[in-house]
Amino acid sequence: QGQLVESGGGLVQPGGSLRLSCLASESIFTFYYMGWYRQAPGKQRDLVAYIATNGTTNYVDSAKGRFTISRDNAKNTVYLQMNGLSPEDTAVYYCNALDDYGPLASWGPGTQVTVSM
Predict the structure, then answer these.
(1) Which residues of the chain have pLDDT under 70?
(2) Distance of alpha carbon 76 from alpha carbon 34, whole angstroms
(3) What does each C-alpha distance from 42 to 19, 86, 91, 92 come to in angstroms?
(4) How many CB atoms sit inside 10 A of residue 3's CB?
């Protein structure tokens, strides 16, 4: 059984919002930073935002002011609230635990986000 399961993606119009969820196994959720990554067609997988166990957050410039990462430690779940979506946000979104050297766990299936009229 996988350690990471993402959900909440879908088709949304430009300017719309989505909330992604990621259920993680306790073994990786409890002790590490949790992050959201995305991979657009033909591009590499990039980190979008991450959150520490104490709730401290960090975002790439393109996500600042539009995306909000949060975590529910009681549910081993990390969320990504995405507002003001644009076609450039179209990608498969993945979550993972991470440290200073990169992602730590096997990737889950991801969740597709498509922003289009």
Answers:
(1) 1-2
(2) 10
(3) 24, 18, 10, 11
(4) 18
